[in-house]
Amino acid sequence: MALDADVIVIGAGLAGLVATAELAEAGRRVILLDQEPAASLGGQAHWSLGGLFLVGSPEQRRLRIRDSHALARQDWLGTAGFDRPEDAWARRWAEAYVDFAAGENRAWLRALGVRFLPVVGWAERGGALADGPGNSVPRFHIVWGTGPGLLEPFVRRVRAAVAAGLVDPRFRHRVTGLAASAGAVDTVTGEVLVPSGAARGEAASREVAGRFELRARAVLVTSGGIGGNHDLVRAAWPARLGAPPGRMLSGVPAHVDGLMLGVAVRAGAALVNGDRMWHYTEGIANRDPLWARHGIRVLPGPSPLWLDARGRRLPVPLFPGFDTLGTLEHIGTTGYDHTWFVLNRRIIEKEFTLSGSAHNPDLTGRSLRGVLRRLLPGVPGPVREHLDHGPDFVVAGDLYDLARAMNAKARARLIDTAELRRVVEARDSQLANPFAKDLQVTALHGARRYLGDRLVRTAAPHRILDPDAAPLIAVRLSVLTRKSLGGLHTDLSARVLRPDGSVLDGLYAAGEAAGFGGGGVHGYRSLEGTFLGGCLFSGRVAGRAAAEATA
Predict the structure, then answer these.
(1) Helix intervals (H) in 211-317
(2) DSSP structural state of residue 275
(3) Is the pLDDT of residue 278 over 90?
């Protein structure tokens, strides 16, 4: 039978684009399939803040951040907690990824035209022991242009390959089957969906217009995870995280449905670590949603007081920005599916960033003037819109009215005003001098020692009840589905493995579909900036490996 291409790539997100660009650069003919319309080219990366985990960068050195390969490796392994036989390949991917992040990652991207903000963020600090989870130093490098800025060079390379006749993009093609001949996966079958004018992120029709069958010498799966399919999320939810929340928001569109993973498994692939997942605990409902249950992650500074649904402080070290999965595990023990930030105007002005390209128009639009305005007093525009109109925000002049509004929002009398006052005043009592036994206040002082946080991410320490910082604000937070940390089991050449550990010839996987490498390069927990970075690295590895195999 005649071949339609050298390689078929399934999924036109970041990992798929990187792999396709590498394949085309090697002279391979590629068919690029995606079930969504062309408007969704780039997938979830388009919506991202564009943060990447880099080690020992010039941006770090300029801010006097002393980072090293050894420290990054210690942080990664302490965060991942690899403890399963099937983690052997994942650990090798982790070692290779740290090499990449401390080596050629930044130079490779700069050669493609990618630039970074001068301030390095300090996300997922962990807050435990030195060899436990979290970043020891700031490593979150934000791309100038956010997610769209990171996508640009790869979209450009793929479009050039389309013009050269090397890449054939076929949107609205949903894969439903993989088949093999002569022992190697070489056939892709599926449904052609009716054309759709749906905008990026909007639900597109699933009406079938026809069927297709394509053959190639290799097939590469870059179809993403399961975060938009809450049924699959709940089915995979591990007991260690407690019961899944009754109400969750979606950080990804509904088409991130995990269906391609099932197709690969039916073709003989091993899917591992499905119980490992990464969901944010600081989700708010988007006031202008694009997809069902559309949520946004809050990137908080260290000052907001984090309370459970009954108004009790979360335990140490579950402070804003410290330990995402530790917080998720704790929320699962409370019996409620929401928590609260309590803060004031001065804190929200400086410490409340909404994640994603759409909510940071200055960074996405590369507006230096807009970025400099962040240094001035006032609530940033996208935050102000949610503060004024968002369904999860309440504003009040005193604690009595704040507690009443929080109870009204929750539709239950869970917050006791006297207890709320006790908790807030106890925290405020620690701000009278530079010394404190409250570890969150100590962490706040520590954050201010880092120039990047002092300039743009932390308000000067002050009492929440300071009248000059009024009004008081409470923000209801929900669990926001996001990433699958497990995926298709792959070796270090991105070749998909069978359940017995042997190679499933002809089939490759990258990005979230492969757990960002090895079926779970992150182990149980992730360091921020490694999802986009994982797509870049695994997509590049897979593209180059498939190109070599089809030479």
Answers:
(1) 230-236, 259-266
(2) T
(3) yes
